[in-house]
Design goal:
218 residues, Spore Coat Polysaccharide Biosynthesis Protein SpsA, Chain A, 6 helices
């Protein structure tokens, strides 16, 4: 998919505190998980950059990073155009971290469709995810009023994750969302999974204008 107005927003400014116990070096240096590799190869950030190529080209990938992480992101982003690397002086949370690059993209392409990709996901089957990203981007290009959010079929009961309860969980079909539940108890999480809830992995596709207006009004 190479539609001219599809952009990827790659979020890579987080501290990765949830997995800090696994990403701290023997010398005590805590490395944010997006700059780590889970299989001894490319980092999660590098894998996300490749993932984004399923919906757009490198020149329309905007990556949000934190100034204090420069030692880790300079190498994987060495070939990126300078205007495509948004450096946050401080981590102000997901909303601020997303609104800034959205405004940046809208200035360059007012009709942009954006696909938001966190950079800390490990994906076992990239082909399946690529199909989902492409479908979400196509829907968002046609429908500028709604935000499309990808959900993942849970492999286990995990109370540390967010859940999406859709109205209809037909395979590969869009559905309205009945409810969002963030970090439920294990009992509630078990009931949600039985009811067809999905893990919320915060992969979003929408028109840049619609996405920015929703964040600004939240």
């Amino acid at each position: 998919m190479s539609a001219a107005n599809v952009w990827a927003l790659i979020l890579a400014a987080g501290e990765g505190s949830r997995l800090r116990g696994l990403t701290t070096t023997p010398g005590g240096l805590s490395v944010p998980k997006q700059f780590c590799s889970l299989q001894g190869g490319p980092s999660l950030l590098e894998e996300t950059l490749w993932r984004a190529e399923s919906v757009t080209q490198r020149r329309r990938m905007v990556t949000v990073v934190a100034a204090q992480h420069r030692r880790w992101w300079e190498a994987p982003l060495w070939s990126a155009e300078p205007e495509n690397v948004i450096v946050q002086p401080d981590n102000k949370g997901t909303a601020s971290g997303l609104l800034l690059p959205l405004l940046h993209v809208m200035r360059r392409d007012p009709n942009a469709t954006v696909v938001v990709l966190p950079s800390d996901h490990f994906v076992r089957n990239e082909r399946v995810l690529a199909r989902g990203l492409q479908q979400a981007a196509r829907l968002a290009r046609i429908d500028h009023q709604h935000v499309y959010l990808l959900g993942l079929v849970p492999e286990e009961i995990d109370p540390e994750l967010g859940y999406i309860l859709p109205d209809d969980r037909a395979a590969m079909a869009a559905s309205s969302v009945r409810q969002f539940i963030e970090k439920p108890s294990i009992e509630v999480a078990r009931d949600l999974v039985q009811d067809g809830a999905l893990w919320n992995v915060f992969i979003v596709a929408a028109s840049a204008e619609s996405c920015a207006s929703r964040i600004a009004s939240a």
